[in-house]
């Protein structure tokens, strides 16, 4: 029985010693000092324990200026050796010192917040409200909803719209070159060109070009810029030929309608 009590006592003492070793005694604070006529904001940290502490900090600065409220945030990682005192950050506040400000220091160990310190001067709530009121757009009552009908491509009268649905750099380069070099054929109208990028394997990209939802071109494009430009020029020729054929067909159908069948 005595031996059992002795073992339990040793176990409890061992737990207490372990807890004492894991305790962290630290402090962190902000202060403002005068240096050569300027005010300097200092963030301090002191490790009062025997442990080496890997930590990180955040400093939030909120200042009142003639232009409104200025926000600036800083953060960084640091290691505090046993019984070491550190200056985490120095921020020079050029004269004149702002009439209102809020400075906040936070120190973390991993995701655990160890310390928070705040220095505040003046009131900033009114200035924030003024800025919000100034930038908030006026609320305009919406007109009663109108009954809408389904619009066709002819209703929209879209002339020369080119839509980019590419994903990779090669695809974007192809679209940019196509867009810059594109010149609409004479009398072509009511068309919508969509440049899509299809899934591909390897470095080459697969591009599909549709005109009014009809696929006209599908080809592979390699990343070299001269090859991308060549592919864009060739694709423009195919799309122009398609639009010219479409306009010729529409014109011929229109002429046939005007002639009539001769049957009454």
Summarize the structure.
The chain is 32% helix and 38% strand. It has helices at 2-22, 125-135, 153-156, 169-181, 225-259; strands spanning 26-35, 38-47, 53-65, 68-80, 85-93, 101-109, 112-121, 161-165, 192-198, 205-211, 214-221. The protein folds into 2 domains: 25-129, Sandwich (Immunoglobulin-like); 155-254.
Strand order of the largest sheet: 4-3-6-7
Q: What is the overall pLDDT average?
A: 76
What is the domain tally? 2
Distance between the termini: 124 Å
Shape: elongated
Approximate helicity band: 25-40%
Count the helices. How many? 5
Order of helices and strands: HEEEEEEEHHEHEEEH
Structural class: alpha+beta
CATH fold topology of the largest domain: Immunoglobulin-like
* Percent range for β-strand residues: 35-45%
CATH architecture of the largest domain: Sandwich
Which spans have pLDDT < 50 for at least 5 consecutive residues?
A: 4-22, 127-136, 149-158
CATH class of the largest domain: Mainly Beta
Major sheet size, sense and barrel closure: 4 strands, antiparallel
> Would you count the extended β strands for me?
11
Supply Rg: 36 Å
């Amino acid at each position: 029985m005595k031996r059992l009590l002795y073992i339990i006592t040793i176990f409890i003492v061992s737990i207490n010693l372990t807890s004492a070793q894991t305790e962290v005694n630290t402090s962190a604070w902000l202060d403002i000092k005068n240096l050569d006529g300027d005010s300097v904001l200092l963030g301090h940290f002191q490790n009062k324990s025997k442990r080496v502490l890997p930590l990180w900090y955040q400093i939030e600065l909120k200042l009142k200026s003639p232009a409104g409220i200025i926000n600036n945030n800083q953060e960084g990682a640091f290691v505090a050796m046993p019984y070491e005192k550190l200056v985490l950050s120095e921020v020079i506040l050029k004269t004149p010192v702002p009439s209102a400000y809020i400075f906040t220091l936070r120190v973390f160990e991993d995701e655990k917040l160890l310390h928070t310190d705040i220095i505040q001067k003046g009131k900033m709530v009114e200035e924030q409200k003024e800025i919000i009121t100034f930038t908030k757009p006026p609320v305009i009552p919406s007109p009663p909803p109108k009954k809408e009908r389904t619009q066709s491509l002819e209703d929209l009268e879209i002339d020369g719209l080119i839509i980019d649905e590419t994903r990779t750099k090669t695809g974007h380069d192809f679209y940019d070159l196509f867009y810059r070099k594109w010149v609409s054929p004479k009398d072509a109208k009511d068309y919508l060109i969509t440049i899509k990028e299809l899934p591909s394997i390897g470095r080459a990209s697969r591009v599909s070009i549709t005109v009014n939802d009809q696929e006209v071109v599908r080809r592979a494009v390699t990343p070299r810029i001269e090859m991308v430009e060549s592919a864009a020029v060739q694709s423009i020729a195919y799309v122009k030929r398609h639009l010219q054929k479409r306009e010729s067909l529409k014109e011929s159908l229109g002429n046939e309608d005007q002639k009539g069948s001769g049957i009454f």
